[in-house]
Each structure stands twice: as C-alpha cells, then as structure tokens.
Hints:
Blueprint: H1 2-25, E1 30-36, E2 38-43, E3 46-61, E4 66-70, E5 78-79, E6 84-88, H2 91-116, H3 120-152, H4 159-188, H5 192-218, E7 220-222, E8 227-232, E9 239-240, E10 245-262, H6 263-266, E11 274-279, E12 286-294, E13 304-311, E14 315-316, E15 319-320, E16 327-332, E17 337-344, E18 356-362, E19 369-382, E20 385-390, E21 397-401, E22 412-418
Parallel strand pairs: 1-22
Antiparallel strand pairs: 1-21, 2-17, 3-10, 3-16, 4-6, 4-9, 5-8, 6-7, 8-10, 10-13, 11-12, 11-16, 12-13, 14-15, 17-20, 18-19, 19-20
Amino acid sequence: xxxxxxxxxxxxxxxxxxxxxxxxxxxxxxPVVVATVIEQEITADQTFVGxxxxxxxxxxxxxxxxxxxxxxAKVGTWVTKDQTLAQLLTNTLEIELAGAKAELAxxxxxxxxxxxxxxxxxxxxxxxxxxxxEAQSKYAQAKYQRWLTLFQQGxxxxxxxxxxxxxxxxxxxxNYLAATAVYELAVQGPRKEKIAQAEARLxxxxxxxxxxxxxxxxFTIRAPFDGYVIxxxxxxxxxxxxxxxxxxxxxxxxxxxxxxxxxxxIGNARHGMPTRVTLGALPGMSFAGQIAQIVPxxxxxxxxxxxxxxxxxxxxxxxxxxxAGMLARVSLPVGGTAKGxxxxxxxxxxxxxxASVFVVTTDPQTKQTIVRLVPVEAGLAYGSLIHLKGALMxxxxxxxxxxxxxxxxxxxxxxxxFSSTVSK
Length: 424
C-alpha cells in the first residue's frame, strides 16, 4: 500500500515537470531586431585613473562690511545663480536711499518747471504790469512837459519842482523798460543755459541714487552660478568685514576629470577626442566625455601631462550623479591601433551591476532561437557603434531592438538584421 502511494506521488511530480517543460517550449517567440558583431582596426584605448573636479569653484566674499541677519547658505544646499547666500543689515542705507530719491524727485520737478516755460497767467500778469508802467511813464512825461512850459514862461514853478518832475518822468520811463523786459522774458521762457543747469543737477542726483542703490545691492551676497554650497564661513549675527569669506560654491554640470597621461601616450591625445568614464562608486554605469584641455607642462618627477576630460553631469532626481572628489577611470584613445569588437550602441544594456548585451543563439535541446545575456565592458564610441570587451566573437548577433523586456533563455524571432559599420 505504501509502495503504491509512493509510485502515485512520483507519477504526479513527473507529470508536473513534463507539463512545465511543455509550457516553456511553447512560449511564443519575441520579435527582435539584431546586428552583427564586427571586428575592425580601431584606436586602442588606455585607462587612466583620475579625480572628478568641479567645473568652477568660487569662494564668495563680501564687498562691504556689516552684520549678518540671514544666512540660508548651509553646506550641501543647492543654489541657483543670484540666489541669496547671506543678507546684511541695511536700515541706514535704506534711509539714505529714500532721502536721495526724494531729492531726485525735487530736481525732476524743477527741470519740468523750466521746460514748461511761463504759464499763460504769468504772461498776462507781466503784460499788465508793463502796460501800467507805460501809462505811468506817459503821465510823468506829460507832467514834466507842462511844468517845463510854465517854468520857461516865468510862472510860479521853482527850479526844484521842475527837477523833481524830471526825475519822476525818468524813473517812470525806467520802470516801463523794466516791466517790458519782464514781459518779454515771460513770453520767451527760461534760457537754455538754465535748463542745462537743471538737467545737470538732476543727473548728479540720479548718480547719487545709483551709488546708494549699488551699495545696497552689495549687502545681499548672491551665488555666482548654479551649484552646491560646500563650506560656510559666517553665521547670523556675525559682523563681517570687507573682503571677508562668506561661503564656497562649486558647479557640477559639467564636471572635469583630471588624469595624468605618460609622455609616450600624450602625442596621440587631441583636443575634443571622445572618452569613456567609469566610477567605482557607480557600478554598471559609464559616461561619455571628451578631452577639453591638454596642459603642455609635464610633471618633472613623473613625466606625466595633466589632461582634463569634460563630462556632462545633469541633475537627476534633484542631485548630480558625479560628485567632486570621486575616483574615476578614463579610457583615452591614445594607444595606437588594434583589433576590436564593435556593436551598435542600442545593443548595450545598462542599469544592472554590469553592462551586458543579449546574444542570439540556439537552444541545443529544443533547437529554438533564444538569447543569452553576456556581460561586457564598454569602451569608446565610434559614431553609432561602441567598442565592447567580453565573451563575444565577430559574427555574433546581438539584439538592438526589443531587448528592453527580454530574459535570458527567452525564445526570439529575428525579424530584421542591421549591418554594423563604423561612421566616418
């Protein structure tokens, strides 16, 4: 009885295994596009160890002295260009600026008054004064002439009275001339020299306002570019002097990686050459860069030349992947020529512990076309192709489209084969 139960159990297990094998073998093939691995003469690359450095680093100082009332620039804070790092007390300057602006408004109104000229009422008033002075002058002249006639006829007019009449006539005539001049000035308006003087006074006051406003802006210490605060040199309540350090800011997009290339390789290095960068802190990831600068002065002890490689480093999820001080390995095409395996860039699968590609092969048992996952080491890019090192051979077919959801051992159907050629 017990033997019968055992045989029954074994039969059930074997049936389950057979069913699983049938299900796996009947899994539908996934359509994919492949490309052939090619082998060509390429520039051999050499790997050099370097350090990630910020594109720019600024020790931000104060252009004025004052008391710190705000200091939001804490270490590790991301800041954008012109964002406030520290704010100094500005009460006194704000009072000076308000007074200077009021004086500026006064000068502006004085200039406007001169440019507008005399009002119609002022011209009418000057004209009335002129006409009154004219009438008074005519009356005084007529009176003098009468007294002169009487004096000449020997009538009762003394010499002193005649002189007084003459003086009154002369004074009335001068008053008339003065009133006429006032009227003509009212009609003509102010002289252009007076307007020019008022304009000059306005400009002087405007520069006074600009000077105070410029000083006021310096009491707000701002970030010189987008980046991270990496050091604090003050605190709220502290009195800082002119040229005192406030904070340090670094820019991380892009970054530069400085490597030291031996003299027997430096002759092959060229400005703008493509490079590939990997970091131990970011396994499975690689970054494309290019040579930005070759320093033509070697270190006399090591006989190596500093080469600076620039790599784009945009923010992802509110942070930069490449950080200053990281250890990096840079592949430079400076080692002459050698044979290498090339595949299209789309074949490369990143994001895992190591870069890899799916190679099309045949299952020896089922004779189905399947894929196997092959770990590789990515090298330099050559146009649309990339140099790979790993368990690959020239003539292998690698998946370039449809590899996003593939699994090792999964059946595939090749619907198209791309030709791999090096771009010139």
